[in-house]
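Example 3.
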Amino acid sequence: MAISTKIQEFMEKSSWIRKMFEEGSRLKAIHGAENVSDFSLGNPNVPPPDLVNKTLQELVSDNTAGVHGYMPNSGYEETRKAVASYLGKIFGVAVSADHVVMTCGAAGGLNIILKALLDPGDEVICPAPYFVEYGFYCDNHGGKLVTVPTKEDFNLDLSGLAEAIGPKTKAVLVNSPNNPTGQVYPEEDLMALGSLLDEKTREIGRRIYLISDEPYRDIVYDNIEVPSLFKAYAHSIVTSSYSKNLSIPGERIGYVIVHPDAEQVGLLLGALNLANRILGFVNAPALMQRLVARIQGVCVDKSIYEEKRNLLCEGLKYAGYEFSVPKGAFYVFPKSPIPDDVEFVRILQEELILAVPGAGFGGPGYFRLAYCVDDQTIKRSFDGFKRALDRVTK
Amino acid sequence: MAISTKIQEFMEKSSWIRKMFEEGSRLKAIHGAENVSDFSLGNPNVPPPDLVNKTLQELVSDNTAGVHGYMPNSGYEETRKAVASYLGKIFGVAVSADHVVMTCGAAGGLNIILKALLDPGDEVICPAPYFVEYGFYCDNHGGKLVTVPTKEDFNLDLSGLAEAIGPKTKAVLVNSPNNPTGQVYPEEDLMALGSLLDEKTREIGRRIYLISDEPYRDIVYDNIEVPSLFKAYAHSIVTSSYSKNLSIPGERIGYVIVHPDAEQVGLLLGALNLANRILGFVNAPALMQRLVARIQGVCVDKSIYEEKRNLLCEGLKYAGYEFSVPKGAFYVFPKSPIPDDVEFVRILQEELILAVPGAGFGGPGYFRLAYCVDDQTIKRSFDGFKRALDRVTK
């Protein structure tokens, strides 16, 4: 075998997803893209806030020597200060620039965290359904993702988590607001999780870290707030990106922030800095670091997503689907009316609706709809949703 | 241990380099940065070509929907076309956009190549001295870097390479123009290397790929040309970045290009695409992809580096050092006048000259000077170089 055996296996295993996307492209080519309702991709469609464009224009007219040069692997001091100052207020825990590492998005952030933490065979516990990349990220660094089903409403099953944690557990990884379910974990559950991790740490004699992937923190509805993980557990590491709140996912800018009281915090920050370097990220893109330093707290008009959520939920209700109304992010995760979600997604394709089977997220029996699409795409899908459901139930 | 044991070992092993940099900072604080000659960092100091700033200004005034959004993991079709069209001419081998993957710099490029190729225990053969990150990059993906000393003039030792290649060899990794030596491998050596790899592939019964890290391709002197690896060996994978030719290393933009006749080329390109995604790069930064699509073939004024090279070489000659005149990149790698290069670098520090010991590059007995610094920094170092040499030889 010339290429890596494992990578070849990964490619084969994910070939059904590729085929599904290819079928989507085929349908668009036959019927016209404007007649297909594509809910398969989480690519934000709300434009970046005006301040993004305005600030970028200011920044690129500054040709001071070195503005595009290397900086420390953790990022510009100025950017890390701005992030620490803003997040300190949001999280209710004072943090300094030293606790921040700027990263190539949250995907880069998760990889440096796992590289910094994992020894071969270490386990990372994660509630399921979950973002499918987590399994790859753990495997990249010799670790193993262990999933624990959430409750019926996609909230944390604390007793399930307690059972799964063992001597190999290095970290628990949560993602709230959640992709693919849209669930936001309430404060009392996070507090209980914090207590559980303290208890289990004593039990196994090794610190269990809590990792939180929060790219959708600012995209929440009905005036709810995303609770602070830093208040729930001192040994927390949060990663996020500006992909969703600034609608710039292609620019790969995000951060990791470590709780100042986390065990071995100094070593951990040194390890994150080294991991950013040796994994080949080197540093987060310079110009985007300078951008986010200036516009902390800015967010796209999330009411647009909220209206899309409302519209799609009305349509699903009209068609007769069972689902939890998402509290955040831009996904809804309805129950498949037949147990085989892959088969049901095929039936939806026949109605010119593109979705992703829940099996792809460790949530078989469901399917994911990304509603970061234009309103017409949502509206024209309603009858198709109804027909698909009718076909399998009548 | 809370953090990864291996990462902690890496941090301990490289602590002497950190201490050396800290000593440099201490010297600057005491004596004033303007009195210290810092040759320790390869951070390009020639400003980006005007076209970089002009094009960026044009690009950020384009607010078309989605310009900062996700694109395929391999990058924009338009960018990959521009890279393929330009490099096809330079390399003398026709390539298409399909053979190009845009990456987060050459460091990102090397990591996706190694992820795509390596199975646990696979070896990557590399001439030494070498860029110290290569060892980490191989280790990231379960591989092992095996180094083979170059000849006295830092050219390839083909019989040494032939001896080192065995059944575990997955690839040979070359870097020309070379960091830290400034050597550029001549065409006949690359052709001989190509023949050797074909022969060894037959011998071990598994394809050996040739990986070339070429970020300094455009920074060469005395009108020499960097030969095309694609003409020397069909199973070649080239990675590079725009960090040095456009002086934008902080922006993390580069590419991987695969020879169209490489064994399993389709699988390999699929694997590179997947590796870009699952290692957390996701895609090369969008805005910088749009930049380089428009300015292929543009380069900083390399005559500035050539003059700096000439100036530093004159100074080293005046002071009495033994060294090969670099043909490219912006490093010179003189012989340490005492066998212990770490000790000699300490002596240079006492003369307010900052260098990096050759031991850091797998080249003990030498030291590296990066001459991407202003001319005054170079000029004021001459007497210090002389005094340091006198101290150890008189």
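The mean pLDDT of chain B is 96. Chain B is about 45% helix and 15% strand.
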